[in-house]
Amino acid sequence: MSAVAIRVEKLGKQYRIDGQPARYRTIRETLMQSLQASVHRAAGWGRSQNRPVSSPYELLWALREVSFEVQHGEAVGIIGANGAGKSTLLKLLSRITEPTEGSIDLYGYIGSLLEVGTGFHPELTGRENIYLNGAILGMSRASIRSKFDEIVSFAEVEKFIDTPVKHYSSGMYLRLAFAVAAHLEPDILLVDEVLAVGDAAFQQKCLHKMSDVTQEGRTVLFVSHNMGAISTLCRRAIWLHKGRLAQDGAAAPTVTAYLNAGSATSGRKVWAVDERPGNRSFTLTSVTLKNAAGEIVSEVYLSETITVEVEFEVTEPGTKVVLSLNLWDAHGSEVFSSLSNTADNPYHGRPLQPGRYCSQCVIYGNLLNEGRYYVTFIGVSGYWSDGFRTDYALAFDALEDGVLKRDYPGRYGGVLRPKLVWTITPR
Amino acid sequence: MAFTPESQTAVPRLPHVHIEPSHGWASLRLADLWAYRELLYFLIWRDIKVRYKQTVLGVAWAIIQPLCTMIVFSLFFGRLAGMSSDGVPYPLFSYAALVPWTLFANGLNQASNSLIDSANLLKKVYFPRLVIPLATVLSGWPDFLVALVLLVPMMLFYGLTPTWHIVWLPLFLLLTLSTALGVGLWLSAMHVQFRDVRYAAPFFTQLWFYASPIAYPSSHIPEPWRTLYGINPMAGVSEGFRWALLGVETTPGPMLAVSILVALGLLSSGAYYFRRMEKIFADVV
Description:
The complex is a heterodimer of chains A (427) and B (285). Chain A is an alpha/beta fold and 427 residues long. Chain A has 8 helices and 19 strands.
C-alpha cells in the first residue's frame, strides 16, 4: 500500500533571538521597553516614519521553504550539520511548536521520541513510571498494561520494578526509558538521536529495535549524527543545510554528498571568523592535514605517517583545552576517536593564556584501509564540560602504495588495516 | 470461515492532522483535551503520589494547614475580638470556609508554577497543554476530602447536624475549582513569559485571602454591596460552604449568582488566553 504519511509544504519556522541573554523576561523589562518605544515615537514625531525602525530582536529562520512527502512504510533519515534545522523539523512534525509558515499533513498516529524518559519522576517506582511515561507518550492504559511484561523484560529491570527510579543506575534508567518508548506503536515514528545514549550493548539493542520497527512497515523519520545508522536503517535521506532542503534522495549518495560538502578536500580547512566552531573559552581556526614530508595534502599513502594539525585561539584566560580527533569512513561509521589528554607536552592540561596555539595529532602509517575518510574534532574546556564538535572538517583519501600488500592482488576487508606482527615457526 | 472481500480491503481510516500557523485567538480544542483524559488522570495521580511520598507527615498536612489557621483565628478573632459568626460556633464558622480556601489557594499556586515546572515535557512531547494546570488544580482533592471529613467530629462536638442544604455542596466545590483553574490558567500562561509570577502569586493569594469572608461573615455588609461582594468568587464559595454544611441562616442567593458568573468569566477568559499563548510555550519556557 502506498499512501502519503507525511506531507510537508513550504514549511518555515522563524525564531526571535532577543538581545538579552535571558530567554524569558520580567514585567519590568517589558514595561520599560514599551515606555522607551513610546518616548521615541513621541520625540520623533512624524519623522520616525522615514527612519528604518530597528527591530529589538534578531530574527532567524531555523527552517525555510522545506517541502517533501513521505509514503507509509518509508524510513527516512534526516541529516545535516548542527543548527541545520533537523530538530526544529521534528518539533514541528510532532506539534511541540507551531510553524511560522507553510503546512504539514500527517496521516496516522504519531509517536515522537525526541528524548527518552521524558516525564520520568525520580520518586516513582519503575512500574509507576512505565504507566506515567506511556500516558505522556500517548499510549492508552490498556495498551501499556498489555505490553507491560514485554517492556520490563526488554529493559532488564525485573528485580527493581518496584524500586523508585532515583535508585536506578543511569544505565537501568535509560534502558527502562527506551523500553517504554520502543513499545509505542505509532503509524509514524519520529526519532531524534535517542540512540546516542547508553553503553555499546544497549545501543546495539536499540538499533535492532529500530530496524524491527522499520521492517514492520512503519513510517520512521530518524534524525542522527551517526551516518552509519542512517545508512543501515534508512533507504532514503533528507539533507538539511542552514534551514533549507539541500538534497532528498537515496540514503547512500545523500550521506556521501553531505559528508563531502562540509569537508575541505584540499587538505586544509580554515573557518571564517563567524563560523569558527568553539565555546566561550576557545575556538578552532583551522585544520590541516600534512604528509610525512610536511606538505599539505588531501591524498595520503597507506604506509605513511600523517599529521593532523588543528589551530585554535584561546579567548578566556586559564582555559584548559582538550581535543578529540574522530575519524569517520565513507559509510559514515566512526573509525576511531583519539583524545589529546594523552599528549606528552608541557602545554597539555595547563591553563592557557589567550592567544593562538597549534595542536598536532600524528596518525601512524599502516593503520587505515583504502578509501575516503572524514576528520571531525570535539573540543572540551575545563573539566570535561562545555564541549562542542565540528562538522566534518576534512576529507582525505587513503591510497594504496603496496607496502603492506606485497603480492596480494585483492582488497582488504574491514575498516582498518593495521600492520600486525606475524610469525611462523615449525612445531 | 467465509471469505469476505470487504475484510481484505477494509483499511482503518487513519487519523489526519493538519498543521499550519494559527492566527489570533485559537479554539479551545476541547475534543483534543477529552482524547487525552488518560494523561490527565495519570498526571493527577502522579502529583498526589509524589506529594505523599516526599513528605514525612504526608496526608496530615491536609489537616494541619486549615486546622492551625482555624485555631489561631478562633483565639484572636473569635475570643479576643469577639467577631460574630452568623450564629454558629466560631471555630466551625472559620473552618468551613478554610477547607475550600485551602483547596483553592494550593491549586492556584501550584497551577501558576505548573508550566515552568513541566518545561521538559513542553519541549519534548505534544499534548493539549491545558492538561497541566488542570491536573495540578484537580490533584488537591484528597487533601480537600480529608479536611472535609474532619468537620464531622467537629460538628458532633458542637452538636450541629447538617441540613438538606448539603446536597448543594458539589456546586460550591465546582465553583472553587473553576475559580482556581480560571486564575491558574491566567497566571500559568503569564508565568512562561514573566518570571515575576513566581513571587507575585503567593502575595496575591494572601491579599485575596483577606478580601474573602473567611475570618469574618459577609452578612455585616448591607445590600446591594453584599451582592457586589460576590465579584470575588471566593466570597460566594465561603458563604456557600457555610450555608451548605452548617446551615447558617444567611442564604448566599444573589451574591452567589454574581460569583458564579465571575468564575465562569475567569475560567473562559483564562482558557482562551492560555490557548493564545500556548504556541510560544515550547519556544520560551
